[in-house]
Design a protein that fits this description.
The protein is α/β, with parallel strands linked by helices. The chain contains twelve helices and 15 strands. Bound molecules: NADP nicotinamide-adenine-dinucleotide phosphate.
Amino acid sequence: MKKKVLITGGSGLLAVNWALSIRGDYAVTLILHHKKISLSGVDKDVASLDSLDECSSVLAKHQPDIVIHTAGLANVEECESDPDLAQEVNVDLAKNIAIVCSDQGIKLVHISTDHLFLGDQELATEESITNPVNNYGETKLLGEQQVLENCKDALIVRTNFFCWGAKYHQSFSDFILNKLKKNKQSNLFSDVYFTPILVDELVKKTHQLIDSNAIGIFNIVGSERMSKYEFGIKLAKHFNFDSGLINKISINAKSSLVKRPKDMSLSNKKLCQVLNCEIASFDEQLRTLKEQENKNADNQVVLDIIPYGRHYIDEDDIQAVVDVLRQGAYTGP
Ligand SMILES: NC(=O)c1ccc[n+]([C@@H]2O[C@H](COP(=O)([O-])OP(=O)(O)OC[C@H]3O[C@@H](n4cnc5c(N)ncnc54)[C@H](OP(=O)(O)O)[C@@H]3O)[C@@H](O)[C@H]2O)c1
C-alpha cells in the first residue's frame, strides 16, 4: 500500500508542485484553506489549522504517515504590515501541527526558509547564528523553534525553491519568463544572492532524508550561489530568450521595500554528507523545468470556480486594466 502524505498550504506554490512530483508514488492529500483547487490523482480536504482541535481532527481523519507543512505567510511585505497574521500563520500553525504530529506519531516535515540570517555571509550552515532582519524571517525562526520544542522527530527544511506556478499564483521564474515571452524588460537584483533549487530536486532529497530517518534542521538548496540577476540571465539563456531584456539593479535603490538579507545563500554540505549524494546541477534543474513546461502546475491545477465569477485575476486581466488606463480618454484635462 502507498504511504499517505498530507500537505498543508495545499493551494500554495510549493504544495502543488510537491503533490505533482510525488502523486505517483504516494497517496497525497492537499489541505486547502481559502483557495479551493483540484489536482488529478490527489485528494483534498478543507481545514483551518488555527485551532489545535481542528488540526488534531483533520490529521486523525486522514491518518497520514507524513505531513509536509508548507502553509505559511511567505509575503515579506505582508508579514511586516500585519505582524499578528504573520505570528498566527508562521508560528502558531507550526506549533499546532507539531503538537498534533508528535501526539499522533506522524513524521513531520516543516518547511522553513533561507531568510533567517543577517545576510552578510555566504553559504550559511545549519549551525550559523540566525539573525533575521524582518518579521518574515523572525516569525519563520519562531516557527522552527516551536517545531523543535514540540515534535522531537521533525525534519526542518530550510530552502529557497523555483518551480512552475498555477495561473492564480506565479512563481519567481514565471514572472521572469512571462516578461521575456512578451519581450518586456525586467529589473533584477545583482546584489541579492541565493542558492535556488527546483522543487522536484527539493522533494527528492527531502523524501530521501525521511527514508533515512533524519531529524532536525537541514538546508536543502542548490549547489550554486547566484544573484537574482544571474538567475534571470541563466533562465533567459536556457529558454532561448533575449537576456538583454534583463536589467541589473541594486536592492539599495529600492528603499520602499521591507529590509531583506542581501546574502541568503545556504550550504548543502550536511545534506550531501548525510545522503552521500550530490545535488543536480543548476543547468540540469533548468532542463527539468523546461521539460515540465507543458505538464506543469499551470496546466494541471484547476481552481474550483464558483458559477458567477473567478477567484483570481491573471496577467491578462492586469494588462487589460493597464491598457484601459493608457487610453487617451483618461489622460485628457
Ligand atoms: N516562495 C518562496 O520562494 C519560499 C522560499 C523559501 C521558503 N518558503 C516557505 O515555503 C512555504 C510555502 O511557500 P509558498 O510560496 O508555496 O507559499 P504560498 O504559495 O503563499 O502558499 C501558502 C499556503 O498557505 C496557506 N495558508 C495561509 N494561511 C493559512 C491558515 N491560516 N491555515 C491553513 N493554510 C493557510 C495558503 O492558503 P490560502 O491561500 O487558501 O489562504 C496557501 O495555500 C512557506 O512556509 C514559505 O515560508 C517559500
